[in-house]
Amino acid sequence: MSIRIGNFGLWAAALVAYAAPAVASEPHPMVSVMTYNVHGLPWPIAEDRTASLSAIAAQFRAMRAAGRQPGIVALQEAFVPDAKAIGIAAGYRYIAFGAPAEDSSSATTPDDRRFVSEGSMLRGERVGKHVGSGLAIFSDYPILAVRRMSYPVCAGYDCLANKGAMAASIAIPGMARPVTVIDTHLNSNGATGVSEPRALYAYKRQIDLLGSFIDAVARPDAAILVAGDFNVGRDLARRRYFAQRMFGGPVALTAGSLRCRMTRACVVREPADIAISTARAKDWLMYRAPNALSIRPLGLSAPFGHDDANAMLSDHIGVMLSYALDDGSIRPKPQAMLASR
Prior knowledge:
- The structure is a single chain.
- The protein is α+β, with helices and mostly antiparallel strands.
- The protein has one domain: Endonuclease/exonuclease/phosphatase (Deoxyribonuclease I, Chain A, 4-Layer Sandwich), CATH 3.60.10.10.
- The chain is 24% helix and 27% strand.
- An eight-stranded mixed sheet has the order 1-5-6-4-3-15-14-12. Strands 7-8-9-10-13-11 form a six-stranded mixed sheet. It has a two-stranded antiparallel ribbon with strand order 2-16.
């Protein structure tokens, strides 16, 4: 039976006791996470995506039949019903979606309010949200609670969607504490229709807010796995700010895909598509482990890349990373599952 996680209340209100089942035969639990922007945009913004989205769901089903499906999937641009339906069609029992169109945040700082007030209605700004965040998390493991946030600052046509981030607390078998999985989609650059400085301002503010969101949901004793379309691209200013804020400072994430490529014991499959995805620098899989826990990338692959005819089912490559998790304990103990701050 599928369990859909809708709008939850405050993150603090979701605190419950959690005890994962012991897995004595597997001292180091493993989990695979995929990030995939499925290009599930509505017509006429994009061509009819029905066939491609159905093919994506079918490929997930085939992976499951072969025992190769990712345990956790983080989607972006799952706007249309066919995109949202991928999780159930692919056999995932636990499903959570990001913020809907009407659930948005208002700018709070003077600079942000000034930025918003100068927006162009002709470029999709100041006309309201037409679709939700497009975020979705599908999981083979229980989703215990979800927290969502919307970016109050956006630029250009991206403002038509209620882009933001979502965090799901997920019970991984063999782990004493739930793992927090974060999915996000940040403001694009050239596709916004506005000037590069304006798009960059929105991008930097969203990075700042994402860092605060990660800090707010983090637990000092639990792992964080981050996935999403970060829209870094080739822009040097974006690359610098992304690296400074995501890999440094209090967030201090590790790029799992890059770490895997530098680790001889980590197996890389579909290397050509992995190289393309890495060069684009948009789709990222990152992690952070507290001192008592270790995370080790085991394998990196691109199940949703180019086919034999050099075609893709989306304009992004779906990238999957497998992790070995070790919290130093085979038999879990009950713990509060979410941070409350």
